[in-house]
Amino acid sequence: MLLSISWRNIWRHPARSGVLMMAIIAGLWAGILVTALTNGWIHQRFVNMIQEEITHVQIHHPEFLTEREPWMYIQNKDEIFRFLERDERVLSWSARTLTDGMIQSPLTTSGVQIRGVQIDRERATTTFHENLTTGDYLDSELRNPVLLGERLADKLNVEVGNRIVLTFQDLENEITSGSFTITGLFRTASNPYDERNVFVRSDDLQDLLAGEVVFHEIAILVDREELSDSVRTDLNYQFDQIIAETWYELSPELRYITDAGGNLIVYIMAVILLALAFGILNTMLMAIFERMRELGMLLAIGMSKLRVFVMIMMESVILTMTGAGGGLLLAWLTLGYLGEKGIDMTSMGGDSMAEFGYDAVVYPIAYTNDYVTTIILVVVTALLAAIYPAIKALRLNPGEVVRE
Amino acid sequence: MAIITTQNLSKIYNPDTIPVHALRDVSLEFEEGEFTTVRGPSGSGKTTLLNMIGGLDIPNEGFVEIDGTRITGMKDRELINFRLNNIGFVFQAYNLIPVFTAYENVSFIMLLQKREKSEMKERAEELLTAMGLSKKFDSRPKQLSGGEQQRVAVARALASRPKFILADEPTANLDTDSAMNLLDMMEKMNKEENVTFIFSTHDQRVIDRARRVITMVDGAIDKDERKSPPSKGESELSEQGDDSLS
Ligand SMILES: Nc1ncnc2c1ncn2[C@@H]1O[C@H](COP(=O)(O)OP(=O)(O)OP(=O)(O)O)[C@@H](O)[C@H]1O
Ligand SMILES: [Mg+2]
Q1: What is the rounded average pLDDT for all residues in chain B?
Q2: Average pLDDT along chain A
Q3: pLDDT digits (tens, 9 = 90+) for A126-179
């Protein structure tokens, strides 16, 4: 019955309640959409980074990532390979020979990270090869093939078929260099990455670097992301000359965006609901002030203050939730459409997004959690906004109100 | 034993600024089955007295006892619950919940009392029918005339099975016919079901229908007159009075 009074009271002023509901619908719709868009960005960035290069777990010499010395390679690689071969959680893995050096074209030089990869393993483990825009992958017949980012090629003024020289320190700290032929150009979502990385065959690099088989990094793809932690832990337990780390530990950026992304809905909704709260407060105050007599009468005939309080709170929650339901439904329908089609951000500055490594076409994602969080926040807002009007109503002195 | 006793009731509004003595030393007793009106000029304290008896206002001095229970000094929550289960209220206006139908308004108070569903339905229908509203169960207050609204209010007051009903100027907003019709209904309930009524009014025709007339002047009881129990002659007399006025 209280529910019924509350519901009918809302419709005493259809225009007033309607306007508030529209505001709530618009606010929540926009909030969910912005969140979903950002979720999409984060997810795409995550997938890109995991799939293109980082993978789930990586193994290095304990100091390699900080010192990056050529001699800090993985000593017990064969045991580790055998372990990975047997472990059922491991989907695939690829070992890499890494070193920092200079790239030199007839025009200019530039500092780069040289990534020596095992062609077939790399192709099975990461999707990097899909970023190739011109030319062929490293499995060419040519001697010493190399892949450059488009941007780097522009900067060096070279193209497919040209030769460049890579210079770096070998294991004995001697400067060594080799001539490589550009067989392909690539473009990832990240411009800085494209300018800083070149890809060669690990065999070719090893010849120049060590004259023996050395790997600095083993990238491991596991069956499901949730297995990352346990694989990392087992590797660290099993082998002591290396350190295994998950993507979460390896990439500060991924760590940051996944951590911040988890609470995104709360931040966005808090701002929107703060604005809506004033609308709810205003509507509820109006509703209470015009009903002072009626509320006084209810208290006089014996309706308890608790019931009056609950009635007002319910009115606020129902009013707000009706709007929220509409907003969430609308958002859900919109996302059902956009989730498949994606939003092309190019016209809205998508190019500049690439500077930070984010795709230009974004597929928004709203998680169930986002909807649940929104609903909880909406209810809390509705309750908070109604407390003041409800207390006003409870302060009524029925003896005064019923006079006249 | 009296069902209502007021003992030396005094009420002073604004004691610190411009004190208004709304009630001065009012001691009264009401018996079960009485049909009493409180009359007096505007500002004489009628509403204040009824509010005191109904536990809607607190006296500065004296106390009110209902059926042996002292309501003066009760805690807020206790008092609201006491009102719900012991006192029926009819006000001059704003008696009904506008979003509820006549039937729902009457059921509502029984719902607050947590009565059985079946009893609620039966009693709401019975009372509305007794008040001549058998065709108006599903009408909202806005769709009812002023007189019909007041009859719903009386039905609502009766629905809670109170010890007595307080009605502060229940006819003030009604035309003569509706006012007399409301009085007929109240009188009928008083006679048939022995419901105790205390109502205030300015209206001489309403005063004529009461069997006890308390006259207030300036916050004090000026006169307290009782008519002999209704005989055939008297009821004829009051009907004659009606005719001569209309
Ligand atoms: N809240 C209040 N503050 C100050 N004075 C008040 C208050 N309520 C009532 N009074 C005063 O108390 C006196 C009695 O008022 P009350 O309403 O009881 O009179 P009444 O007989 O019901 O009058 P009416 O016939 O106009 O309804 C009046 O002088 C009134 O102005
Ligand atoms: Mg009055």
Answers
A1: 90
A2: 90
A3: 999 999 999 999 987 888 999 999 999 999 999 999 999 999 999 988 999 999
Residues 6+ away with beta carbon under 8 Å from A197 = A112, A113, A115, A149
Q: Residue A216 in 3-state DSSP?
A: coil
Instruction: Name the residue among A140, A146, A218 with its Cα closest to residue A186.
Output: A146
User: pLDDT class for B244, splitting at 50, 70, 90?
Assistant: very low
Report the complex ipTM. 0.90
Indicate yes or no: pTM above 0.90.
no
Q: Do A301 and B89 touch (CB under 8 A)?
A: yes
pLDDT per residue over A358-402, tens digit each?
667 888 888 888 889 889 999 999 999 999 999 999 988 888 877
Q: Which of A296, A301, A399 sits opposite B109 (nearest CB)?
A: A301
Atom 26 in ligand 1: which residue has the minimum CA distance?
Answer: B42
Are the Cβ atoms of B97 and A302 closer than 8 angstroms?
no
The verdict on the CB of residue B52 being under 6 Å from ligand 1 is no
Residue A58 phi/psi, 5-degree rounding, is -130, 150
Considering only CA atoms, which of B53, B57, B54, B55 is closest in space to residue B26? B53
Distance CA A320, CA B8 (A): 51
pLDDT of amino acid B31: 95
Measured distance CA(A222)–CA(B35) in Å, rounded: 89
CB pairs under 8 A between A and B: 70
Joined tokens for residue A134: 């011109």
B91:A5 CB<8 A: no
- Set of chain B residues whose Cβ sits within 8 Å of the Cβ of A300: 54, 56, 83, 89, 91
What single letter denotes the amino acid at residue B230? Answer: P
pLDDT (0 to 100) of residue B21: 93
Delineate the domains of chain B, giving CATH numbers in brackets: 2-233 (3.40.50.300)
Closest Cβ opposite residue B91 in set A12, A297, A299: A297
Is there an atom of ligand 1 within 6 Å of B107 CB? no
Yes or no: say if B23 and B9 are a contact pair by the CB < 8 Å rule. yes
